[in-house]
């Protein structure tokens, strides 16, 4: 926000070019406005709404009702993508047309404060209109966006507006839970928690907040338990209109950086939560039913995001998990209650089999190596034993090098394994070779690039990994040249 930026700059001895900022913002708004004029734009800030008489306004009456009768004051034909023409004010909307109906009064809540707009239907004497979204538009008007599904609508006629009650109640549960949730976060994590964004639809609530690290499983449990506790306490949800000053004195939480009018709406949930809010809510917290956190993640530096479910969506969530557990149990030939023990047993078996497999690989590698002493090269008086293997992991390579190191004196061993899409390298040098100048770590630094990797280590042992097994032959050639440069010539 520009205000915050201004404060930070002033603290550091800088000033902000406010005139330049406003000029740039004005230019951006004009650019966006011109773009919207030349496209079939259907958003809340579509320029077509600015053509409606500014004296005409909409009043929201839906806090306590799901239906109302009113008169249409504007009809807008919104051109769908791919359709010819432009958005336009019209005197009638006919069957199949996409558009917006604006009325004097409406029980439909328009998207605001993170809460998504209502859905439902509008009926006239001669037609039906499916409301798919509800938006605040220019001039303090509320637009019902959707499509005529039967007949027609004419400007100025009486209509009946009916909100999808089930959808609205699901949204209310999520919105009210968000208030409990925010207070619970401050109780568990601390008062540094501030809202950084939110979204509530009929399925879930999403809440972004300031916090310096990921929440622990215990913290998530404490927050979830506290919210469910307040739900079960059947806290009454109340609303009151008061001055902004009185609201702040009452301890009501406000969204940082939000601009409020002289009068605000305050929503309380018992004596647990008090917030400035214009959204719709349950009448009592018990209506929320239940609350379940389903994810926690970071979305920016110092900002965390939690998604949660309420009411019947929690039951659906657990039903889905139960079904997945049942499928998993059937595959493992166990009951759901036995899954944890069954998985632990399978993990032990897998670990044992992996160990046996690696042991077999090492034995096979030992056989394939044969007696490498006969193939050892003399490099300035020191033996170099270098070989390539297939499918041996790093542990296996180290074991093989150790075995050969014990058999040989004054020797450097270089083993590289081709493991499909990667290569692994181990170099060892005995004490006598090290004394003469051999350095396994430096050898690896020179050899590893040939296999597309890097690494290093001590004078007597070093290792590396790479992504280019095709370079193994070159790596072995490089080993001889690199060792020769290290050793003291005799």
Report on this model:
The protein is an alpha+beta fold. The protein folds into four domains: 2-37; 47-163, Elongation Factor Tu (Ef-tu), domain 3, CATH 2.40.30; 169-318, Threonyl-tRNA Synthetase, Chain A, domain 2 (2-Layer Sandwich), CATH 3.30.980; 362-486, Diaminopimelate Epimerase, Chain A, domain 1. Helices cover 35% and strands 30% of the residues. It has eleven helices and 23 strands. Strand 18 and strand 19 (382-390) form a beta hairpin. The termini are far apart.
Structural class: alpha+beta
CATH architecture of the largest domain: 2-Layer Sandwich
Number of strands: 23
Please indicate the percent range of residues in DSSP E strands (runs of 2 or more). 25-35%
| Tally of individual helices | 11
What is this entry, summarized?
The chain has 490 residues and is α+β, with helices and mostly antiparallel strands. 35% of the residues lie in helices and 30% in strands.
